[in-house]
Write a structure and sequence with these properties.
Elements lengths: L10 H9 L13 H22 L1 E13 L2 E7 H4 L7 E6 L7 E12 L2 H8 L9 E7 L5 H7 L3 E12 H5 L4 H7 L1
Antiparallel strand pairs: 1-2, 1-6, 2-5, 3-4, 3-6, 4-5
C-alpha cells in the first residue's frame, strides 16, 4: 500500500514561496493609534485610583459651645474627637444671631475630657448627654474687647470637621476600616 505524503504544503507552493522575495505582511489586529489611547486611559485610571486614596472628604458637624473671653469651649462627642486636630479651623456663629454671622479665624487650641458640670452649663440641666463629651478650646483672635465682653458666657454654635474619609471609602464602604487603619 502506498502511504500518503505527510507534507503540509504542496511542493509547487513551497517552490513559489522560496523563489520570490515576497514574504507577506503581518496581520494588523488594531490601528497604530490604539496603543497611544490605551496608555493614556491607563494613566488616567491609575491617577484616579491614587487620587481616590489620597483625597480626604471632610464631614461637617455642629455642636454647642460657650464663650469664655476670646475662647470658645465647644463640647464634642467622643466619636468625633479623634478627627479634631489642634490647629484645625472651625466656624463659630452666635446661636441667637438672626444673621447667623460667622466669626473669623477660630482654631482649635486644646481638647480634653469634659466635666459633667461644664456639660450641664452648656446644654442646660434638662438636656443630658448619653455619650462621653470632650471640651475643645477654640481661640478666636479677631474679636475686639467690647465684643468679647458682650459675648461672655453666651452659647454659640460651632461647626467642625467630624470625620475625614478617603474618597475611595465613599465609593467602596467595605474598604473603610482598612483605609482608616492605614491613615
Amino acid at each position: 500500500m502506498h502511504e500518503p505524503s505527510r507534507r503540509l504544503f504542496r511542493e509547487a507552493a513551497i517552490q513559489h514561496y522560496l523563489s520570490t522575495d515576497e514574504r507577506g505582511e503581518l496581520i494588523r489586529v488594531s490601528r497604530p493609534w490604539t496603543l497611544s489611547v490605551l496608555i493614556v486611559v491607563t494613566v488616567i485610571v491609575l491617577a484616579l485610583i491614587v487620587f481616590s486614596f489620597a483625597i480626604e472628604i471632610p464631614e461637617q458637624a455642629t455642636t454647642i459651645g460657650v464663650m469664655n473671653g476670646p475662647e470658645v469651649t465647644a463640647f464634642v462627642p467622643a466619636e468625633h474627637i479623634g478627627s479634631i486636630r489642634v490647629g484645625d479651623h472651625v466656624a463659630v456663629a452666635l446661636s441667637g444671631d438672626s444673621k447667623n454671622r460667622r466669626m473669623s479665624g477660630g482654631s482649635v487650641v486644646s481638647k480634653s475630657a469634659a466635666a459633667s458640670g461644664e456639660i450641664r452649663t452648656a446644654f442646660g440641666d434638662c438636656q443630658q448627654s448619653h455619650t462621653p463629651m470632650y471640651a475643645v478650646k477654640i481661640a478666636i483672635p479677631d474679636l475686639s474687647d467690647s465684643r468679647i465682653a458682650s459675648l461672655a458666657r453666651q452659647r454659640v454654635t460651632v461647626r467642625y470637621t467630624a470625620r475625614r474619609d478617603a474618597l475611595v471609602t465613599l465609593i467602596f464602604p467595605r474598604l473603610a476600616p482598612h483605609v482608616r487603619a492605614a491613615h
